[in-house]
Structure formats: structure tokens, C-alpha cells
Write a structure and sequence with these properties.
Length: about 325
């Protein structure tokens, strides 16, 4: 398989702080190569070197076999290296078509050819099976749609190596699955993906290969099928993890909080939950699956569409911050 982009012996320091130490990292054509590590492991520095935003102190970047000691962002993009950042870069006031063609809108007789612009944007989206209207205002799209539009824009401008930085960080389960599906289709079409994520389950499900960085060093590069969650965490932290449940010695007391069939629009449906004295109750789920709505309902900031909240056996007035505080 052809190597599309490679770092060979790359090191980078900032003053006395070493960010990367002799890193070797390669991405093959059509590969999803995940890059993982704790905060401060060196992922951001590596990505900035790939994109030309930083020049390595030692080593070189090779793209399609040609060496580049000092890439610039413009040169990297011209060579097909594109980044989709965690914080979206779409201009919220502009349409999807305007964002897709920003800086290169087609012109006719000195004016923007809007019919051609929307047609070009529609073709680029359709090529990736992204179903977003080109006349939609970007700021009114959902988070997943914005991510899909950004990816489609980078592919349309010649991206052959896409660096996806935490693309699902703010997405719920269904939206994240939509992004995963697009990543798989891009890979099947021969586009190389550098996938950065703190969600280790999605890394293990998506990646052909995984590279783990720790303290600026490459700890391991292995096929995704050869790693499990425990091994991945151990490589990231340098510590053995245990699945043994910690012992709980304290006994729970009487019921303090009762949530009965609580509902709020489409996000929260008939949630029933009890919390007893001396308990710590965790509410888990992907971002956007109802946790923030639950907080707003409990604190009185939002009125539920159904159900009730009781504290110490007494109903708490719905949608009343004062009553929630008093309880």
C-alpha cells in the first residue's frame, strides 16, 4: 500500500520543553489512522507539523514520497493535506454554498454566478452523499451537518489526506454514527484519514491502525484489530487499569430525590430516577442525549412537558428556580 504522508524522525521543542521526540508516523492511501494520547502527549504539535503550521526542529515530512523540510499551510493544502478542526470554521451567517466556495466563488460578467455556485456545491455534497441544502444558512445547521459540510469542503478543494480533529466531540450517538459512516466511505474512496479522538470506543471501531503518543514519544503503532481498550489505555497512561469495581461500604439511606416520568420535548422522554441519601448517582450518555436538559429541569430553568420532581416526599413547582433552590 502506498504511503501518502509520513513524518520521519520529527522532533520539536518549545524553549526547554520537548513536544515531540524523533517521531515516525505514516498514513497509507485509503487508511484511517487514529492518533491518540492524553492531553499534552504531542498530538496537536504533530498535526501542526503535518499541516505546515509548525516547522520541525529535526526530521522531515514526506508527501507521496517527496521530502518537505519546511512546509507552509498554503503548500500543505496544495499538496492535498487538509484539517477539519474541532471548533468549526464555517461562517455562520453565510449559506452552505458560500462556505463551500469561500474565496473561489464562480463569476460571470464581473458578478458572482450564484446558479453555478449552488450547482458546484450541490455536486460536491452529492459526491459524498451529504444531504444538506446549499441555500441553508450554516449557523442554522445542526452540529453533525456542519461537520459534514466542512469535510465535504476539504475534499472538494483537493484534500487527499484529511486530519479530523475530534469530529464527534460535541455529537450525540446518532450524529456521531453519521460522521463515522462518512469517514468509512472516504477511506473506501482512497482518501487518507488521520483521526484524532478521546472517544476510545470509536477509535477501536474505526481505525485501521492506531498510533499512541505519550510525553512526546511514539509508544506504539498497531493495527486497530490488535488492540483492546485496556491495552490502549495502558499505552496512553503507562499504567495498568483494573476493571474491578471499588468497594462501597456506606449504606444508602432514605429516598431524597424522585424524578417520575420527566419529559422535555424530544430530548428527554419519561425519565424515572430515584436518589437516596449517601448515594452518588451517575447520569451517563453521549453529548446531546439529554443531560443538560435534565439539569435545566432540576434547577427550575426549564419547565418540563410532563412528569414531576419530588424532594423529601414533596412536589417541587415546575419551572421555578426559587422553588428548586428552596428544595
Amino acid at each position: 500500500m502506498d504511503v501518502r504522508i509520513e513524518l520521519a524522525g520529527v522532533s520539536k521543542s518549545f524553549g526547554g520543553a520537548v513536544a515531540l521526540r524523533e517521531i515516525d508516523f505514516a498514513v497509507n492511501g485509503g487508511e484511517v489512522h487514529a492518533l491518540v494520547g492524553m492531553n499534552g502527549a504531542g498530538k496537536s504539535t504533530l498535526v501542526k507539523i503535518l499541516s505546515g503550521a509548525l516547522v520541525p526542529d529535526a526530521g522531515e515530512v514526506l508527501i507521496d514520497g517527496a521530502g518537505h523540510g519546511a512546509l507552509t499551510p498554503r503548500r500543505a493544502r496544495a499538496l492535498g493535506v487538509s484539517i477539519v478542526h474541532q471548533h468549526r470554521t464555517l461562517v455562520p451567517q453565510l449559506t452552505v454554498a458560500e462556505n463551500m466556495l469561500l474565496g473561489r466563488l464562480p463569476r460571470r460578467a464581473g458578478a458572482v454566478d450564484w446558479r453555478r455556485a449552488h450547482a458546484e456545491a450541490a455536486r460536491a455534497l452529492a459526491a459524498l452523499d451529504v444531504r444538506v441544502p446549499t441555500r441553508a444558512v450554516a449557523g442554522e445547521l445542526g452540529p453533525a451537518q456542519q461537520t459534514l459540510v466542512e469535510i465535504a469542503r476539504e475534499v472538494a478543494t483537493g484534500g487527499k489526506v484529511l486530519v479530523l480533529d475530534e469530529p464527534t466531540a460535541s455529537l450525540g450517538g446518532a450524529d456521531a454514527a453519521t460522521v463515522h459512516d462518512l469517514v468509512r466511505r472516504l477511506s473506501s474512496a482512497g482518501i487518507s484519514i488521520v483521526y484524532i479522538s478521546h472517544h476510545l470506543d470509536e477509535v477501536l471501531g474505526l481505525a485501521d491502525r492506531i498510533t499512541v503518543l505519550r510525553d512526546g514519544r511514539r509508544i506504539v503503532t498497531a493495527a486497530g484489530a490488535d488492540l483492546d481498550l485496556a491495552g490502549l489505555v495502558r499505552a496512553m497512561t503507562g499504567e495498568q487499569i483494573s476493571h474491578q469495581r471499588p468497594r462501597r461500604d456506606r449504606a444508602a439511606g432514605e429516598t431524597v430525590l424522585e424524578i417520575d416520568a420527566l419529559a422535555s420535548g424530544a430530548r428527554l422522554a419519561e425519565l424515572t430516577l430515584t436518589v437516596r441519601a449517601h448515594e452518588v448517582v451517575a447520569v451517563l450518555g453521549p453529548a446531546g442525549d439529554g443531560q443538560s436538559e435534565l439539569f435545566d429541569l432540576l434547577s427550575g430553568r426549564r419547565r418540563p412537558s410532563g412528569g414531576r420532581i419530588r424532594v423529601a416526599g414533596a412536589d417541587v413547582a415546575a419551572g421555578d428556580v426559587g422553588a428548586a433552590l428552596a428544595a
